[in-house]
Every structure is written in structure tokens, then in C-alpha cells.
Automatic annotation (TrEMBL), chain B:
Record-given protein name: ABC transporter permease
Keywords: Cell membrane, Membrane, Transmembrane, Transmembrane helix, Transport
InterPro entries registered for this protein in UniProt: BPD_transp_1_N (IPR045621), MetI-like (IPR000515), MetI-like_sf (IPR035906)
Coiled-coil stretches: none
Subcellular compartments: Cell membrane
Source organism: Streptomyces hokutonensis
Keyword Transport: yes
Membrane topology annotation: Multi-pass membrane protein
UniProt xrefs under PROSITE patterns: ABC_TM1
Segments passing through the bilayer: 12-32, 101-120, 132-157, 177-199, 242-264, 284-306
Superkingdom, natural source: Bacteria
Record-annotated ABC transmembrane type-1 domain positions: 97-303
SUPFAM superfamilies linked to this entry: MetI-like
Protein family: Belongs to the binding-protein-dependent transport system permease family.
Length: 292, 319
């Protein structure tokens, strides 16, 4: 690092720009926000402008290539592919967001309690987290899907239940540093309860860590649900999501029907990239440690 | 002495974690409709048969007793019997696991061979266009579902240009897998892609950290050439921690194998797991989960220990 750039960093550290300005300087993160906003418009407003029938099959219109009447062609049961992209996107985005938020909530509660309690409670709670991390989420999701076929709500809950582990570790680490701060000790000294200490001081001061974790969590959840649906055990037909649209992908790949593969795949990549970019931007703006 | 203490504590922790995993798997086994009796007698068994079996096997005893019984079975290497394949789960996994290992090790090697030079090159050319381009690409690769990449590769290399077959090598033994190396190309490349993305990031970070160390400045002041410093010192010092990261990467490797094997019809443990999920073959599913979890715990343990030994400044892991 040159002397000049070191000086520039020093200056930034001395006069921290407001949060929003720091976030806005990260062009990738701003692009992420734009992409996510566009996808929400596409999936939720799009169907109003480009109306298609996604419930009934139309066997006279199967496997058509892109054309004026079907911009992205049709799939093997005659659904318009562009319309399906909007329809599946709703599920992908909603399930991803809800599961990501749920996972963060569970992880935050678990991590703050473990970190605040300390001692053997902490040790036991964190070994449970280690065990959870040792069982890869994709595998446990497939086992659960084989036992019971979840509806969309159930899928969100299951996704949340298998992916809260990383946020819990981050929040625990944050809690460990916060719990010995003077204001927490003061609150305890004047008779404030433990839950009050967590609710009033620990959690509000961990908010940046939590928000950053939640953003990455949403990105991961969108990917995870796409994997499970692709493997045929996620969102059940006639509903679908972007991963489910790709579950017939191999047949499409052999017959060269790229329009059935490329659009949902690119949609997943763009949205996941966007959430990751937003997470990166937030992490840098908040200046917290998240994943690398 | 300090290291020995750390090692003992860390291994004890790992054992506790594996024990918790067995509790989870045991719990899932009992959450099944019909319980483990269903698992052994199969989906056709009558309620009478199940009651009789439960009594015979002591499955009507309290859960903690049953859990101990289950643990004893595990310690004897007994993972139960598959519903659909009518074979011991341990035997099925024993046949399939080596093939999965071939696939994952090949992917990991190819991935690392690309990722390490890429990451180093990025670090040397930090904040130059090449660095930004590769960073963006790894960002995209990280966000790409493995199966989507696989589908695109199948489409391009079996439809547009017909270079590689779309099916992985078949056959029961590892030797048969290697008999058809051309068919291995697409599965291995698909599996390696995300490795390249992740490990080039690690290598970039590790190289940058080493480049700012005093010994590099000393070497430079002593007149060593940049190339010599990079390869003699920085590369070697960056390599070990990055390789150690492989230990944390074990679950991702297995997850990747699941998708790659399903996509390319490669008869390894991933495909076994996937077919078991399709046919609700719980003993196989949970047996695989157990094996993968233990592998993950061992991988994490090795990574922690290696990092600790390589860099004693690293403080002893988690609480």
C-alpha cells in the first residue's frame, strides 16, 4: 500500500461519512438495490402488464421457441415462459426473503442468549450450532422433504430452521464484546433484568451485524430453495419457483431449448448476486465483520 | 503443551458435536411414520408385525434406552437396511463413497490448480482491471447454482459442439470410472467452478496479507527480485492456510457432488442419496447424512488444528 493511499484511508477513518453516503459510494451495492427493485417490479407488477395463464396447461402450445406472441417461448406443458418467470419469481423472492428473515431472527435470539449467558449454557448452545453446521442444510432439507411434502409456508419454516446457524455465531460474537460494556453493567447494577439488558442494549447495538447477516441470509435462502426445487422436492406443481423451472432442464438441454434454461438460471444468479452485493455494501458501510 | 491441551479440547468438542448429530438423526428416524420398525421391515409391514418387531427389538422401551441401543449399533458399523435396495446401508455407502471421493478430489484438485495462481495474480495486480474482472467473475460463480452451470455446459458441449458426453462414466468400481476420462470432464469442471471462485478469494486475501509482512520488506530491501519473493516466500506461506480451508469446505463439496451426480447420472453417494429421497428410503438418507456430518466435523477439526499449528497466533477456535 502506498503512502498516498494510506493517507486517504486515514482521512476516511477520521471523518466517517454518513452511512448512506458510504453505502452509495459502493457502486456494486447500489446496482444490487436496483436489480432487486427491478425484479420485484417484474414479478409483482409484470403480470398486470403481461397477462398469462399459469394454471392451465395448453398442449397445443408446447415447447415453442421465442416469438412475437411468446417472447421467451413456452415450456413442455404450454405455459408462457416469460409469464412463468414472473410467477416463479414471486415464490423465489418471497420464500427467500421470509426464510432469510426467519433464520436471522432465530439466529439472533439464540446467539444473543448464548453469548450473554456465557459459561456452560453458551458451550452447550454453541455445540448445538456446531452440530447443525455439521449437517449440511441441503441434505437435511431433502430428508425432511422426503418425510413430508411441505407447502410454501412449511418450506419457509424448514428453510429458516436449517439456516439460522451462521447468524447465531455472528450475533454471539457481537454479544460477547457488548455484554461487558459499562452501560450494560450499569443497567444490571441498578437492578435491570437480563432480558432488559439484551433487549435494550445488546440487540440494538448489534443491529448492523444483524442487518448484514440477514442480507446474506436472503441470498443463501434463494439459492437453497432453488436447489431443493431443482431436485424436485421443493415448491410443488402447479406452483413453481425459478429452481423448479429448471428441474426439467436436462430434457430441455438435450433438445437445445435454451429458453427454458437460461432465463430462470440468469434470474437466480442476478438476484443472488444483487443480495450479496447489497450485503457487501452494508457490511463496508457499517464497518462490521461478516462473512468474507 | 499448549498445543496438546488445545488438541485434546478440540477433539473432545468434535466428539460432543458428533454425539449431538446422532441425536438429531435418531430423532428424525423416530419422527418417521412407523419409526425404525418401518425402516427395517419396509413400507409393506402390517401394524401387528411392527408391534411384534418393536417388542422384540426393545423399541417399546423408553427413548433414552433406545438411543443407547442405536448408538451401539452405530459403533458396530450398522446403519440399518435400505427399503428399496434390500442391502445394508453401510455396504451401499461403502460401494458409492469411493466414487464420490474420486469426483470431489478431482474437482478440488482442478479447482485449486486454477484458483491458487488466479488469487495470487489478483493480489499482485490489486485494484487493477484484471483484479476487478476476476473478482466480479468469482462473485457471479459464487451465486450460480451448480446445476445451472452443469445444464449450460451440457447444452454447449453436447449440442452446440459435440466434444464431451453428457453422462458421467458408469460402472461399479473406481477403475471403471477412470476408464472413460473424457466423460469425466463435464462433471469435474462443473464441480470445480465454485471452488475456483471461493479459493481464489482466499488465496488473494492470504497473499495480500503476506505481501504486507515485514519479511517481504526485508527480502526486498535485501535485493531479492519480486518473482523470487513471491514464489519462495509468499506463495509458500499463503498456501497452507488456504489448503486448510478445504477442511471447512467438506460440506460444500458433498453438496456439489449431490447435484453433479444427479445431473450427470454418476453412480456415487450423491446419486444414492437423491434416489433415496425420491423413494423415501429413510435408512439410506439418514445413513448418508450421518457419514457426511462426521466428515464435516473431521474436516473442520483438521482445518482448525492445521491453522493453529501453521500460525500459532490463531487463537483457539470457538468457545
Amino acid at each position: 500500500m502506498s503512502v498516498q493511499s494510506a493517507g486517504r484511508w486515514g482521512l476516511v477513518a477520521q471523518f466517517p461519512a454518513p452511512l448512506r453516503a458510504r453505502f452509495a459510494r459502493n457502486k456494486l451495492a447500489v446496482a444490487g438495490i436496483v436489480v432487486v427493485a427491478l425484479f420485484f417490479l417484474f414479478c409483482f407488477i409484470g403480470p398486470l402488464l403481461y397477462s398469462t395463464d399459469q394454471t392451465h396447461t395448453d398442449l397445443t402450445q408446447v415447447n415453442l421457441g421465442p416469438s412475437g406472441s411468446h417472447w421467451l417461448g413456452t415450456d413442455a406443458v404450454g405455459h408462457d415462459e416469460l409469464g412463468r418467470l414472473m410467477y416463479g419469481g414471486k415464490v423465489s423472492l418471497l420464500v427467500g426473503l421470509a426464510a432469510g428473515v426467519l433464520a436471522t431472527v432465530i439466529g439472533t435470539l439464540w446467539g444473543s442468549i448464548a453469548g450473554y449467558a456465557g459459561g456452560w449454557v453458551d458451550a452447550v448452545m454453541m455445540r448445538v450450532v456446531d452440530a447443525g453446521i455439521a449437517i449440511p442444510a441441503l441434505f437435511i432439507l431433502l430428508v425432511v422433504s422426503a418425510i413430508t411434502t411441505p407447502d410454501t409456508g412449511g418450506l419457509i419454516v424448514i428453510l429458516g430452521l436449517v439456516s439460522w446457524l451462521v447468524p447465531s455465531r455472528l450475533v454471539r460474537a457481537e454479544t460477547l464484546t457488548l455484554k461487558s460494556r459499562d452501560y450494560v453493567l450499569t443497567l444490571r447494577a441498578i437492578g435491570g433484568s437480563h432480558s432488559r439488558a439484551i433487549a435494550r442494549h445488546i440487540l440494538p447495538n448489534s443491529v448492523s451485524t444483524i442487518v448484514v447477516a440477514a442480507t446474506f441470509q436472503v441470498a443463501d435462502a434463494i439459492l437453497l430453495v432453488a436447489y431443493v426445487s431443482y431436485l424436485g422436492l421443493g415448491v410443488q406443481p402447479p406452483a413453481t419457483d425459478w429452481g423448479g423451472m429448471l428441474s426439467a432442464g436436462l430434457t430441455a438441454a438435450y433438445s437445445g431449448r435454451w429458453w427454458l434454461i437460461v432465463p430462470p438460471g440468469l434470474a437466480i444468479i442476478l438476484v443472488v448476486c444483487a443480495f450479496n452485493a447489497i450485503g457487501d455494501g452494508l457490511r463496508d458501510a457499517f464497518d462490521v465483520k461478516g462473512r468474507g | 503443551m499448549d498445543t496438546l491441551l488445545y488438541l485434546t479440547r478440540r477433539i473432545a468438542q468434535a466428539l460432543v458435536v458428533i454425539l449431538i448429530v446422532t441425536v438429531v438423526v435418531f430423532g428424525l428416524l423416530h419422527a418417521l411414520p412407523g419409526g425404525p420398525a418401518r425402516g427395517i421391515l419396509g413400507p409393506q409391514a402390517t401394524p401387528q408385525q411392527i408391534t411384534l418387531f418393536n417388542h422384540d427389538q426393545g423399541l417399546d422401551r423408553p427413548l433414552p434406552v433406545q438411543y443407547l441401543y442405536y448408538l451401539r449399533q452405530l459403533l458396530h458399523g450398522d446403519l440399518g437396511t435400505s427399503y428399496t435396495l434390500n442391502e445394508a446401508v453401510s455396504q451401499l455407502i461403502g460401494q458409492r463413497l469411493p466414487k464420490t471421493l474420486v469426483l470431489t478430489v478431482l474437482s478440488a484438485v482442478v479447482g485449486l490448480l486454477l484458483a491458487l495462481p488466479l488469487g495470487m495474480w489478483q493480489a499482485v495486480r490489486r485494484n487493477k482491471p484484471a483484479d476487478y474482472v476476476i473478482t466480479t467473475l468469482s462473485f457471479v460463480a459464487y451465486s450460480t447454482p451448480v446445476y445451472f452451470l452443469g445444464l449450460v455446459l451440457v447444452m454447449v458441449f453436447t449440442q452446440v459442439v459435440r466434444w464431451f458426453p453428457s453422462q458421467a462414466p458408469q460402472g461399479d468400481t473406481v477403475a471403471q470410472v477412470f476408464a472413460d476420462p473424457v466423460a469425466l470432464v463435464l462433471p469435474v469442471v462443473t464441480g470445480a467452478a465454485s471452488m475456483v471462485a471461493v479459493f481464489s478469494r482466499y488465496m488473494r486475501a492470504a497473499t495480500l496479507e503476506n505481501l504486507s509482512e515485514d519479511y517481504v520488506r526485508t527480502a526486498r530491501a535485501g535485493g531479492s527480485r519480486q518473482r523470487a519473493i513471491l514464489f519462495r516466500h509468499v506463495f509458500r506461506n499463503s498456501l497452507t492456510p488456504v489448503i486448510a480451508m478445504l477442511g471447512y469446505y467438506v460440506p460444500v463439496l458433498f453438496g456439489g457432488a449431490l447435484v453433479v451426480e444427479q445431473l450427470f447420472n454418476y453412480p456415487g453417494m450423491g446419486l444414492l442419496f437423491w434416489s433415496a429421497a425420491q423413494s423415501s428410503d429413510y435408512p439410506v438418507l439418514l445413513g448418508c447424512v450421518l457419514v457426511i456430518s462426521v466428515a464435516t466435523v473431521v474436516g473442520t477439526l483438521l482445518a482448525d488444528v492445521v491453522q493453529r499449528i501453521v500460525d500459532p497466533r490463531v487463537k483457539g477456535g470457538t468457545a
